[in-house]
Amino acid sequence: MQRSPIRLNLQVVSRSGRRSDGVELTEALLVAPLPLSKSLEERKMSLLFIGTRVAPVAATVMIIATLVTCVSIAKANERYLGGLAWPYFSDTGRDIPGYAVFCAGLTTVSVALVLTWSANYQYQSELLRGETDPSASTIRNYCKAVRIIGVLSALELSILAFFSTTSYPDVHQYAAYWFFVLEAVALVLNTIASYKLSRLNKVLHNHGAGP
């Protein structure tokens, strides 16, 4: 006697728009997330590439271009020179059009720094993924601190750009101090984290290559 196949009540609309039975439902659930996962991984790689390769170069080029442009405007108009052959950088962004260039340039640098520190954290996190060594927890804390301090330093750069030495001299001055201090601290902590991460990888590699 021929038995009729058992069908499940659960049904789903496939990507082609046709309805499929329960067996095909399992296949759809297994196959459908793969493009999403792949897309997410590609997005992470793109952000990592931008943060580690594009953003640092963009920040360097932009800060040089901003400096040259603002100083050129100041010297051409013979303003804010203070008897100096080359004026203070902050003084070149006091009034339009130098102020507009100053704000746009340093804000772009600030965004590039945020991308750089974020990508740096992502890269270090990928290296630490799945690590159960006790020292890995300490390294993760260093990496988190580096990201937070680095991003805060970038925000201070935007503040000193928009608060000129003419209207808000104190805010501009303290923002400049905090930018350099926080950036220096972030660099030192990042160096420590990278050193510890390198030693951890070396230890794990030596254990893996043992007899």
Automatic annotation (TrEMBL):
Statement: the UniProt record of this protein carries the keyword Protein transport: no
Source taxon at top rank: Eukaryota
Compartments reported by the entry: Endomembrane system
Membrane-related topology note: Multi-pass membrane protein
GO CC annotation: endomembrane system
Entry's transmembrane regions: 47-76, 96-119, 145-163, 175-195
Domain CWH43-like N-terminal intervals: 54-201
Keywords (A to Z) from UniProt: Membrane, Transmembrane, Transmembrane helix
The protein's name: CWH43-like N-terminal domain-containing protein
